[in-house]
Design brief:
The complex is a heterodimer. Chain A is α/β, with parallel strands linked by helices. Chain A is 52% helix and 9% strand. In chain A, a hairpin with a 5-residue loop joins strand 10 and strand 11. The longest helix of chain A has 37 residues. By secondary structure, chain B is an alpha+beta fold. Classes of the chains: A alpha/beta, B alpha+beta.
Chain lengths: 1034, 108
């Protein structure tokens, strides 16, 4: 029995749409910073935060005392706050004698707790009475009706039904359901962490689970008759339709209902959502599982648990609960209050007894008593809080003078304010940040250089580069530039010896070119061929060194642990001798010629045939002659008849030979069609000359580096080193898809040094002199070390200058560590002695007990697209993404649009990830690392069973319990003529939406008119420089 | 023309944002549609304004059209299947009556 096709498709569609608010969760091997509310970016920032807070049960702004702290520290100015309050009041500034502006100002800056009480029963009249010390009465007539409506709204509707049941009867169905589902997910999605596999995973998530569930004895013993539910349909959609119908959820509510079902485990839901849409993800191809199946499993278990509750006499579906609310309102109300923990101790006993005895008159009595008591306590609490505020604001008499209607108005305004105050604080913080930025900017025209710099360096836009760039510029004649960490060249990289591809680019792109690493010999040799054969056979994901258990390696690991803990640096130096470093290879950047590709395919076919003969016919390798291989190959390709002479040599008869040849064709893929496909895949390797020229030209022109090339042009990728850190990828380069940037640097350097590329670049107006050498380098953000790579390729003429370059780099390293390490360490010597700071930084990268090896991108707030001159004289404290850009070289705006469409989006994701992890680390972040356990090899849980944790850990964004990262929206600056920048923004759909919906704050600085424009509340407002508070805050 | 048997079928033209292309083709696969054609890089005007056919760096955020030819009894379930999606996303589906000469290519 199954449901109609139309309904089946509709349910798939509904689940797709219902899941959209849930952000993707990428495996942590390549951690991707992502806006947790990415699915809500089509809404305005303010609206999205409201919905997000409800869906994910989290706070979307800091709590008031933290903002008050910022006010005291001067990060918010009182004047700005007042402007925000004025905007909120919008003209109605007084109620009788109460000066609202003053009261609200006082409330926000001096009162820690909120002033509004969420009065569910008390009205303004009753608050008035309490305020004036008069007896508080209870309105009896409408109360029951009101409560009935309210209960229906809160308990039925979009919310999962078991939440209502838990709320009424104190059961824990929700928690139990979550635990069961988590366990199922851990079993099914495991990627090699556990030793015993779940059976039958190839059949897919639902089928594999269904099989087990129907034989699950503990379920049966508890009376959970899953079989009746699963018998309805063997497809997940049918089961979903059945359950929702049984629960009585009307079809119009399915989308909202299912969204809230999934947000209960938004980590797992986000992971499954990502996995089912990931292309070429090995584990998904082997063991497929999608959200429809996930929801089917959840709903099946939910229905079973609810029916169980039904057996105990509880109302368990929409109909029954609705009936109970309508017919036994008082009882349901009391139940809801009692299990919600809102009944005061003095009344709890009588309420409890009344409910247990279940006698109508007792319940009536308890209800009356409870309601009167609650009205009184709410009214008194609200009155007390208003009195406290009045006292702070010196307005006690004015408060008492209010009429009931005016009091009502006051309470409304205050409640409204408290709901919106987060935005007021946020805007004020941003104003201050904008002013600080503008104060440090240099808007004068940059001077033309007389001679070329000693060296130029391209760094990633990552905020950590800001520091090292500043220090490098200070130690000598160095010119630095900022560009996205993959240098504009998306590559799919295959490391020597590994069989899988790494995408080195932002996750929003898919690289089209494959770059394999081959051994140092520049011709295609045997080793290269084996690598390339991997390229064609899509082997499974490489197994990276994980979080190994102690038992597995035993004493040696124990040794490891001791050495690593006691003396990390000395130990690591000793350990390096145990593992001589592999010779790093060369990157194959050029396209293969047709002949090379053909010979590779042939070589692979030959190898496969030899293996097949060995395996299937059991022949020893020395007996498999070249002739035999050639004959088999020709036969498999259909080039000669199946009369095989080699049969004798193979020891089989003609019939078996023919069969074997057929197997070669179909199973081992030795056929013309497959060879063609393989050639196509080999065609992915490398870049054509035109492509190389284009990438180099775009990169250089995007950052404005088109003349006065130095002797050394460093292309500097970045990465982080830490030990025992599931989040280590989060500290690497986001632009490189969560990997380090060295490979991308090598790619661009190799392209840029090619003589043919340089000749072609002349036509683009870029003249790179012969003595200019592009050199890849690596910035280690944990230690700030800058290492040069491919030194063996440096031309002899340059070697004499290397010393000067090296000493400049190491000075910059030490100075940078000296600035940065004090923010991490408690050792006071780090502040004064750069050498000590550098050593401590180095130790952090190896200390396996260090939960905070570096601050990473915490405290990011600015994104500047413009010439270095604009920001060079400012110390931005490692808080800015700096992308070099010269508008004079960008007549058709394409370079600017490229920067907006890629790097800026990545910056916004990073900024929003930090924002939400900082404002509510428990719900949007992942909590403390100390309690994390790795799950399935791609995520972490808190404790031994929890949802997959998303977001950043507390150690990254908090310090001593308070936010270290200041949650502000990304303040973006484009240095270009106003019209040009505006058109570029409007031309890039993602950015246009982000700006319009206020997810980022956008500022345009026009260097030709020397004016600044800020986009605020829907329009571009011109600012004169330097800014006055009035204009920016509006 | 002689001896050409024409079989009536329904043609569905689905216009939607490129980022949802996988969802749409998935749904068609689930419905048992044997094949479809995708046209990329469209521009056009809708209730949300003008969409430029703009590819560049980012592969998403362009408009595409998926053309599928299905037996008449599949058309309605497919439309029903897409209705929740189009209640939240921009795009349209056009259904038209067409005829084909090789029905075996379109129905299972």
């Amino acid at each position: 029995m199954s449901i109609a096709l139309g309904l089946r498709l509709k349910i798939r569609s509904i689940i797709h749409v219902a899941a959209e608010p849930i952000p993707y969760f990428w495996p942590m091997r390549t951690f991707i910073h992502h806006n947790p509310l990415h699915g809500l970016e089509h809404m305005s920032f303010e609206d999205a935060l409201k919905l997000g807070a409800e869906l994910f049960h989290g706070r979307t702004f800091l709590q008031r005392p933290v903002y008050q702290g910022y006010l005291k520290e001067g990060k918010v100015e009182r004047e700005t706050l007042n402007i925000g309050i004025n905007k909120f009041l919008d003209g109605s500034e007084k109620i009788a004698e109460i000066n609202l502006k003053h009261w609200i100002n006082t409330l926000m800056s001096e009162r820690e707790r909120s002033v509004s009480v969420n009065c569910s029963l008390a009205s303004a009249e009753q608050v008035y009475a309490a305020l004036h010390g008069q007896p508080v009465s209870k309105e009896s007539d409408q109360t029951v009706d009101l409560l009935r409506k309210r209960l229906r709204r809160e308990l039925l509707g979009d919310h999962p039904l078991y939440e209502a049941v838990d709320g009424l009867y104190g059961t824990e169905i929700g928690t139990e359901l979550d635990e069961l589902v988590i366990k199922i997910c851990l079993d099914f999605f495991d990627e090699g962490q556990s030793v015993w596999d779940m059976p039958d995973r190839e059949h897919g998530l639902f089928a594999a689970w269904r099989d087990q569930a129907q034989r699950n004895v503990p379920f049966f013993l508890r009376g959970l008759h899953i079989s009746t539910i699963l018998d309805q349909d063997d497809r997940p959609e049918g089961v979903i339709a059945y359950v929702l119908e049984q629960l009585g959820v009307p079809q119009e509510q399915w989308i909202g209902y299912l969204t809230r079902e999934m947000t209960r485990l938004h980590g797992w839901a986000g992971f499954i959502r990502w996995r089912s849409s990931a292309k070429n993800y090995y584990w998904e191809e082997r063991f497929p599982g999608d959200l429809v199946e996930f929801v089917a499993i959840r709903l099946t278990l939910a229905l079973a648990l609810l029916k169980g509750a039904g057996k105990r006499g509880h109302a368990w579906n929409s109909d029954l609960i609705g009936k109970a609310i309508d017919e036994r309102t008082a009882e349901m109300y009391l139940r809801h209050e009692l299990n919600g923990g809102r009944v005061t101790p003095s009344l709890a006993h009588s309420v409890d007894m009344a409910l247990m005895r279940n006698k109508a008159n007792l319940i009536e009595e308890a209800f009356e008593a409870y309601v009167s008591s609650k009205v009184v306590s709410e009214a008194e609490e609200q009155a007390a809080r208003l009195r406290e505020l009045a006292e702070l604001a010196s307005g006690e008499q004015a408060l008492l003078d209010l009429s009931v209607a005016q009091l009502d108005e006051l309470m409304d305004v205050l409640a409204n304010l408290e709901a919106h105050e987060g935005m007021i604080w946020l805007r004020s913080l941003e104003v201050h940040a904008v002013q600080e930025l503008l104060a440090g900017m240099d808007m004068s025209a940059p001077q033309k250089r007389e001679k070329r710099p000693f060296a130029q360096a391209m760094f990633c836009i990552d905020t950590r580069s800001e520091r090292i760039r500043r220090h490098l510029e200070s130690v000598g004649d160095y010119q630095t530039f900022g560009i996205a960490g993959f240098f504009g060249v998306p590559v799919s990289f295959m490391e020597l010896g590994k069989g899988s591809e790494m995408h080195l680019c932002p996750v929003i792109l898919t690289p089209k070119n494959l770059v394999p690493e081959i051994s140092a010999a520049t011709q295609i040799d045997e080793a290269a061929i084996s690598v390339l054969s991997h390229a064609m056979h899509e082997l499974k994901e490489s197994i990276l060194t994980p979080f190994v258990t102690v038992e597995a390696i035993g004493l040696l690991f124990g040794f490891d642990m001791i050495g690593k803990t006691v003396a990390p640096q000395a130990y690591n130096r000793w350990r390096k001798h145990l593992h001589p470093k592999r010779q790093s290879g060369r990157l194959l950047l050029d396209k293969l010629s047709r002949e090379q590709a053909d010979s590779i395919v042939r070589a692979v076919q030959r190898t496969v045939i030899v293996n097949a003969v060995e395996q299937e016919l059991g022949l020893a390798p020395e007996r498999i002659t070249d002739d035999i291989v050639r004959e088999l190959r020709e036969a498999a390709l259909g080039h000669q008849s199946a009369e095989l002479e080699c049969c004798l040599g193979l020891g089989i008869d003609k019939g078996e030979a023919r069969q074997f040849v057929n197997r070669l064709t179909s199973v081992y893929k030795i056929s013309e069609a497959d060879a063609h496909l393989q050639l196509e895949r080999l065609g992915r390797i490398g870049f054509t000359l035109d492509e190389q020229v284009n990438y180099v030209s775009t990169a250089l022109r995007a950052i404005g580096m088109t003349e006065q090339f130095s002797r050394f042009v460093l292309i500097c990728g970045h990465g982080s080193t830490s030990d025992n850190n599931p989040y280590e990828s989060a500290l690497d380069c986001g632009a490189c898809g969560g990997n380090h940037g060295l490979i991308s640097a090598k790619v661009l350097a190799q392209m840029g040094n090619k003589p043919e590329v340089r000749r072609a670049l002349l036509k683009h107006g870029i003249n790179i002199p012969d003595d200019s050498w592009f050199m890849p380098a690596m910035h280690n953000t944990t230690t700030d070390a800058l290492t040069l790579h491919n030194l063996d390729l440096v031309p002899p003429s340059h070697i004499v200058y290397l010393d000067r370059l090296r000493s400049g780099l190491s000075s910059a390293t030490r100075l940078c560590a000296a600035e940065r390490v004090p923010t991490l360490e408690m050792d006071p010597r780090a502040v004064t002695d750069p050498a000590v700071a550098a050593k401590l930084a180095h130790r952090n990268s190896m200390d396996w007990s260090q939960v905070r090896p570096e601050w990473g991108l915490s405290r990011n707030v600015y994104f500047v697209i413009g010439r270095r001159h604009l920001t060079q004289s400012a110390s931005l404290d490692g808080r800015a993404f700096l992308h070099s850009y010269d508008y004079r070289l960008d007549a058709n705006r394409r370079l600017l649009e490229t920067i907006l469409t890629g790097p800026l989006v990545v910056g916004q994701w990073i900024n929003m990830e930090h924002y939400f992890s900082a404002v509510d680390n428990d719900r949007f972040g992942s909590g403390s690392k100390v309690n994390h356990n790795v799950a399935c090899r791609f995520g972490v849980m808190t404790g031994n069973l929890s949802d997959l944790r998303t977001g950043l850990p507390s150690q990254t964004v908090l310090k001593n319990g308070l936010p270290y990262h200041e949650p502000l929206r990304l303040i973006t600056v484009i240095e270009a003529p106003f019209e040009m920048a505006k058109k570029a923004i409007e031309g890039v759909v993602t950015i246009k939406t982000l700006v319009k919906n206020a997810w980022i704050r956008m500022m345009i600085i026009d260097p030709e008119t020397n004016k600044a424009w800020l986009y605020s509340r829907g329009e571009w407002t011109e600012q004169a420089l330097p800014q006055t508070q009035e204009q920016i805050a509006s | 023309m002689n001896n050409l048997q024409l079989t009536p079928m329904k043609k569905l033209e689905i216009i939607l944002e490129g980022e949802n292309s996988e969802f749409a083709t998935d749904l068609l696969d689930q419905a048992g549609v044997k094949g479809y054609t995708i046209i990329n890089n469209l521009s056009g005007k809708g209730s949300h304004g003008f969409h430029a056919g703009h590819l560049m760096f980012n592969e998403d955020n362009v408009l595409i059209m998926i053309i599928a030819v299905v037996p008449e009894d599949l058309a309605e379930p497919i439309l029903e299947g897409f209705s929740p999606f189009f209640s939240k996303h921009s795009g349209v589906i056009f259904t038209s009556d067409i005829q084909v000469t090789r029905p075996v290519k379109f129905s299972s």
